[in-house]
Amino acid sequence: MTQIGSDEPVSQFVFDALQERFPDARCELEFHTPFELLIATILSAQCTDERVNLVSASLFAVANTPEKIINLGQTVLENEIRSLGLFHNKAKNILATCKVLVEDFKGQVPADLELLRGLPGVGRKTANVVVSNAFGIPAIAVDTHVFRVAHRLGIAHEKTPEKIEEELKRIFPQEKWSLIHHLLIFHGRRICSARKPRCEECPVTQVCKMYQENNRPILQENKEA
């Protein structure tokens, strides 16, 4: 297990330890084009990536461009994504986004964070996911896993995703932004779960604020022994 050095920044230790534990950390949404990733990310709201991948594979088999999605229409698109929940609003936003892409961007997804955020149903998190994974632009998308893990570790303290993003960008170098995003998500999904974190399997308990606070009496006894 990775051990933190006396002069090593906590952020560097966290990055190295999580990378050692999750060498395959990556975007788990399946896509072949920036457009497919954009649609999959919109669909992923309040859904697991596994479920989204099943639905998007079926959808993209019949419609994987803005023009083809528009041709499906609201009712057919809703039926394609119905099992994901929130399907009415998701279908509405996807169709509106596709129309903007066709009318303003010649059917192409823009590789620009602010332009992406101007699309219907596309917030900062979705835009960050797309620029990072589709275009290789360094970004940190703060979802529920990143928010939770960053707070528990004590490497972020703010109350909103956007502020957490700013904090993480300050302590991690830009070339590590995209990967630390995936590492924190993998850790949140596989070990540091919301209800029952498996601290006994965690590679970063040495620096975890929540772990240290919850186990302070035990740690003190071990230190005195």
Biggest sheet: strands, sense, closure? none
Low-pLDDT regions: none
Count of discrete domains: 2
C-alpha end-to-end distance: 23 Å
Q: How many strand units?
A: 0
Q: How large, in whole angstroms, is the Cα Rg? A: 20 Å
CATH class descriptor name of the largest domain: Mainly Alpha
Tell me what the CATH architecture of the largest domain is.
Orthogonal Bundle
What is the helical fraction, as a range of percent? Answer: 55-70%
Structural class: mainly alpha
User: Any idea of the CATH topology of the largest domain?
Assistant: Endonuclease Iii, domain 2
Structural account:
The protein has 225 residues and is mostly helical. It folds into 2 domains: 10-24 and 142-224, Endonuclease Iii, domain 2; 34-108, Orthogonal Bundle (Endonuclease III, domain 1). Helices cover 61% and strands 0% of the residues. It contains 12 helices and no strands. Helix 2 (34-43) crosses helix 3 and helix 2 runs antiparallel to helix 7. The longest helix is centred in the middle third of the chain and has 19 residues, at 87-105. The radius of gyration is 20 Å and the shape is elongated. It starts with 9 loop residues before the first helix and ends with a helix. The model has no long low-confidence stretch (mean pLDDT 93).
Task: Note the topology.
Blueprint: H1 10-21, H2 34-43, H3 49-62, H4 66-81, H5 87-105, H6 113-117, H7 124-135, H8 144-153, H9 161-171, H10 177-190, H11 209-214, H12 216-224
Briefly, what is this?
The chain is mostly helical. The protein has helices at 10-21, 34-43, 49-62, 66-81, 87-105, 113-117, 124-135, 144-153, 161-171, 177-190, 209-214, 216-224. The chain has 12 helices and no strands.
